């Protein structure tokens, strides 16, 4: 556990501590997203979520951060009242960039040390660490595949293995484009008490800003689909449905 914490803090320090040096940052972007959906499992059925996202590319790696603030339409959950928050801080260190060598092999364009800290209300703090791979796949804006060892920091179970692919591709649509991106979190091996689970979470977004000629403005409208089998590691049963199968309305603006 100490090794995992140390690596995560080191990566965060390397990325955040050098934020004042502009030459370390190749590019960065931020966005706000609004989601509305209903028929969620485990938590109250109707949810409104506002998400802040940050993505940046650095001379030593890359960084992705998001924070969700979710409102339960006046209903109370069993753990956090009528609203909650959850986020993930995910730095990765690039072997290509750090060693100044091209380590690409076949579809693998870079090898990275991938880390994530999950945080939020309740007993959710978890550190993840493992190898990451950038992939070059024709037609994709990007594709990544990260393998993690999960190390919960609280009292809950859940130590084990997680596989997380992420992707993005663009489809031309008349005067504009449709952007399809998303992730899969597949937790495949765990201690007793936290069931293996699979979360498939793509977004399909139409670039409304481009369609109406808002020069430089990235405004998207679309849907997010969430399929989460055995949500939160709770095994689904006839007595308690813990499987999400929800399509939410989405509105996203790149800041």
Would you mind describing this structure in some detail?
It contains three helices and twelve strands. The protein has a twelve-stranded antiparallel beta barrel. It has a single domain, classed as Outer membrane phospholipase (ompla), Chain C (Beta Barrel). It is globular, with a radius of gyration of 19 Å. A hairpin with a 5-residue loop joins strand 5 and strand 6.
What's the rounded overall pLDDT mean?
Answer: 90
Q: CATH superfamily assignment?
A: Nucleoside-specific channel-forming protein, Tsx-like
Task: Determine the strand fraction and express it as a percent band.
Answer: over 45%
Q: What structural class do you assign from the helix and strand content?
A: mainly beta
Taken together, the total number of domains comes to 1
Quaternary structure state of the chains depicted: single chain
- The radius of gyration over CA amounts to 19 Å
| Main sheet strand line-up | 1-2-3-4-5-6-7-8-9-10-11-12
H and E order: HEEEEHEEEEEEHEE
User: What would CATH call the class?
Assistant: Mainly Beta
Overall number of strands: 12
Roughly how much helix do the residues carry, as a percent range? under 10%
Number of helices: 3
CATH architecture: Beta Barrel
Q: Unreliable segments (pLDDT under 50, ≥5 consecutive)? A: 1-10
First and last CA, distance: 37 Å
Give the CATH topology.
Answer: Outer membrane phospholipase (ompla), Chain C
Shape: globular
- Biggest beta sheet summary: 12 strands, antiparallel, barrel
